[in-house]
Amino acid sequence: MMTTLILGFIFGGILSYAKLNKFNVISGAARWTDLAVPKTIAVAIGVGILFLAVEIGMGWAEFHVKPFILGGIVLGGLLFGVGMAILGYCPGTLFISAGEGALDAIVGIIGGLLGGIVFTAVLPFMGGILGPDLGKLSLASVTGGSGFFYGFLVILIGVAFIAGAMFLHRQEKTPDMKWLYSGIGLAILNPIVFLTIVSNRPIGASTTYPYVGDLLAGFTDNTYFEKITKPGIWELVFLVGALLAGLVFSLLRKDFKFKMIHSEWEKTRGSSVGGRALWAFAAGFILIFGARMAGGCTSGHIISGGMQVAFSSLVFAVFVFAGLLLTGKIFYKNK
To answer: pTM value?
Structure first.
């Protein structure tokens, strides 16, 4: 558990360094005024693809591809994007920002816990919505996962993601390069977590919410809770590490502050504390419900799955960004 806590602390430090956990930055991605998040994700996937392919090829790690459950990926991705745009956080960055004193992140966590409980309750009735299950499809599964052709495609896709990140950076015209260093940091950290001698799993965050929520509600006598108990414990410890990172680094920077209203929220939605709390709670609920429909989140699905060139994760990313950008356009209007 100590190893997991340290890994979570490093994860939180990487994101906190470039302020990728901040409401203003993530909501800026939804409004397409701040491209740090998509740039970081793209470079993390691009570099991570190369590291992970070598690692798995050497027998040091295994694939952990999420199944392509079509309905869950599409609908869950859209819901996740909606929740992410309004909330201004992801399941993992909620804990980092809570450690920095963001009160709306704490409210979002509470909403996410309820979303996890409700998902557990309604899951037995969602079979027709979530399916069909197309299996664990990935570049490796369709090419055999070895040989010249597979290696060539891995390099080509990795370079394409890195080039995409650099293209976005040129369009944004900002001198800040912290996003690049954080992206490379994630590209190194995730393959370390993948190692069979370390955790033998990818980074993830969203399973924490139904796990903790179900525990608090006493809703543990069901097959879904049994399924998520092991990853839920790991992710909970990991996120505690991320929270501690947010706390420690904000204290070192001397910018720890209890805060509900952020500058970009005030510009676009006003200064009502009650309004922000209500939207944060609802968006936290939507975010986690969507994540559990799809089987993962930004870190556990888009980044970890993207590094494996998992088709489910790449399609999930498309629908997440569709929901994110559409919601950003509709929801945020300058006041």
So the answer is: 0.95
